[in-house]
Amino acid sequence: MSVQQDIIHRLQREILQLQGSRPPAPGQIDIALGPINAAFPNKTFPTGAIHEFICPAPVDEAATAGFTAGLISGLMQMGGICVWVSAGRKVYPPGLKTFGVAPDKVIFMDMRTEKEVLWVMEEALKYEGLAAVVGELRELGMTVSRRYQLEVEQSRVTGLVIRQQPRQLYPNAAVARWHVTHLPSMFGSPLSGSDLANTDMPGVGFPRWNIHLSRIRNGHPGSWEVGWQAGRFHFGIAETGIQKAVLGRQENPLRRQTG
Amino acid sequence: MGKRFLSLWFRRLTTDDVSIRRPALLHQPFVLALPDHGRMVITAASASAMEEGIHTGMAVADARVLVPTLEVLDDQVGLTAKLLRQLALWCIRYTPIVSIDAPDGLLLDISGCPHLWGGEKIYLHQIVHTLRKKGYDVRGAIADTVGAAWAIARYGRVSPIIQPGEHVNALLGLPPAALRIDPSIAGRLQKLGLDRIHRMAGMARQSLRTRFGNELLLRLDQAFGRADEIIESVVPVEIYIERLPCLEPICTAGGIEIALTRLLENLSSRMQQEGKGLRSAIFKGHRVDGQLIQAAIGTHRATHNIAHLFKLFEEKIPTLEPGLGIEVFTLEAPKVEDVGPSQTTIWEGAGGLLDKGLPELIDRVSNKMGADRVHRYTPAEHYWPERAITATGSLDEVALDRWSVTRPRPVYMLARPEPIEVTAPIPDYPPMLFRHRNRLYKIIRAEGPERIEQEWWIATGQHRDYYLVEDEGGVRYWIFRSGHYKGTGPHQWFLHGYFA
């Protein structure tokens, strides 16, 4: 029995490698994603892959930018550089500092059209000296995402595509599809024993999001409540399954469709 | 190797130009004239008009007596200078240093150039022959000094090429006017019987100076090579420039690429030896029809990487129109900087700002999309949000000030604050509701105000009281009231950003 299990595990690992996902090398960057890590293949955040973040409403873009910035700060912990490609950029560099990203280590490439963003993002993904490339795009089709995926398999750069108000959610070659939405801010931390959403405190607390991983290749989709405090992610009660996702704002048909 | 100079003399520059443009006038006597004190005075006469005895400075009425069919055209002020400049630029294909020798000639510093054409004789013949074929009546001469070349071009009778070291002998038999001196001095010398240079070459300098002034001695010294003479090139000489003359005109993209690669190899190996790298480069092609086509690139960090530079130029090659063909290619680097010895970053893992590939990526993007597309920011010492960052063009610039995290700053900021309608319970309390673009937002939590004053030495205006507010969905906004609470008046409140 155990021999059979071993063989199955080995074969699974081989399949993962053939699909472009490499096992974590010793000394590889580990983003402290706590319970979310369990959802990924090999139990680590897939670096050197394309992740897409779906933002149906403009306000979700801000939440997504915050969560992405948190991820980037993990990816940049070895002193890397991040490239942020966008058309009509709204990101305010000092705001990234809150999420542990030194704004002077981010190079903003401001394009005029989405087509230019596509080209620049591909060029940036080719260059292996970057820690991460963030691209703000509306659509990410199969062809483009497959090209990007092939580039990052060579260069091991992590590509994060923030999809602003996408029209259609067609299947594509991105490794993961995330949905980030705001949650009421949190006070205190689970470590100090207080509730994350303690509402008695005055003022505005630390940012908190509902992170919904609706697609992950060779992993397990799920939903989590994640907060950001004191330079790292904090996690609420892990809720697996997809039901949690529909608890967000109901008015959006796109979210219901994916949920 | 000694210096060699070539002097070109255009005997009838303006009239030649007119007959090139109007071939019908080629065999007809015509003159160019300008009004002077109420009469038309001839400023230039064509070859056939000169044969009839017409000379410059004559009144048109007098000339008409000699040749009743004389064609009189209006001269343009500044035409000579314009023509000479055009011809000088055309001559760049023979040597990088070409200077205008007003009013009727060009001076070329040809040191080290003629062997590329197979010797001075062929070189001179080619220049003069090409110009004559264009229709210019031109004479040229090559000598060791500017003065000697000038004199031989205008007064020489034996050979246009004076062998190195022979210029003194060649000058001795020429009239004093060949020394580029004032005509009045030349006339006086002539009158005194000093009708050849050798007659005064041996005279005491002191007596020449007292009788004819310093100019004569200076010109004599310059012609004999005893005093230096600096000529000023029409195109400033680039220190880092490579030239590639082609045997046959190039008109294909493949040919241009080969030329570019060869020029890059030469320039790059030279810069590598000297520890330099280029920040900007211009690739020029001199076309057969006299046009100049060019493509320019810039880099973010000094580099002499051939592959990278080629890639930058590669995208511009389709924009170069070879026309009938390109004769000479040049590659110049107007902006050159020192390159430090390249370090191998062992410990820096995924590369940093000093990584070599990063400027190459930025160069590719900014050369394709435009130079103003790539931004990097360093903190500025201002509280005013729009002024808290400065864009820096250099990757080497480090953040001197630290990014402040004491006050919350939004992740998304609107380019321009958008007016909102706000309901606040009491003045100076955080708002309860706000309306933005016809949507109502109910505020659950708020923090603030954070007052940010205008910097009066930069701009005038109201201060801002910023509030961080959160609606029931947990979306966090950055809103501010401009100025003090007034109670009345529209749009004191603005939405400025979104928090993550």
Explain what the structure shows.
- The complex is a heterodimer of chains A (259) and B (500).
- Chain A is built from six helices and ten strands, in the order αβαβαβαβαββββββα.
- Chain A is an alpha/beta fold.
- Chain A has one domain: Rossmann fold, CATH 3.40.50.
- In chain A, helix 4 (114-126) packs parallel to helix 5.
- Chain B has three domains: 1-28 and 69-237, 2-Layer Sandwich (Alpha-Beta Plaits), CATH 3.30.70.270; 241-338, 2-Layer Sandwich (Dna Ligase, domain 1); 412-499, no CATH class.
- In chain B, 28% of the residues lie in helices and 30% in strands.
- Chain B has a six-stranded antiparallel beta barrel with strand order 14-15-16-17-18-19. Chain B has a four-stranded antiparallel β-sheet with strand order 5-6-1-7, with helices on both faces.
- In chain B, a hairpin with a 2-residue loop joins strand 15 (433-436) and strand 16 (439-452).
- The interface between A and B is large, with 56 and 56 residues.
- Strand 3 (106-111) of chain A pairs antiparallel with strand 12 (374-379) of chain B.
Determine the strand fraction of chain A and express it as a percent band.
25-35%
The helix-and-strand class of chain A reads alpha/beta
Which structural class do the helices and strands of chain B define? alpha+beta
Order of helices and strands of chain A: HEHEHEHEHEEEEEEH
Described by the principal axes of the CA atoms, the overall outline of chain A is globular
**Residue runs with pLDDT of under 50 for 5 or more positions of chain B:** 343-350
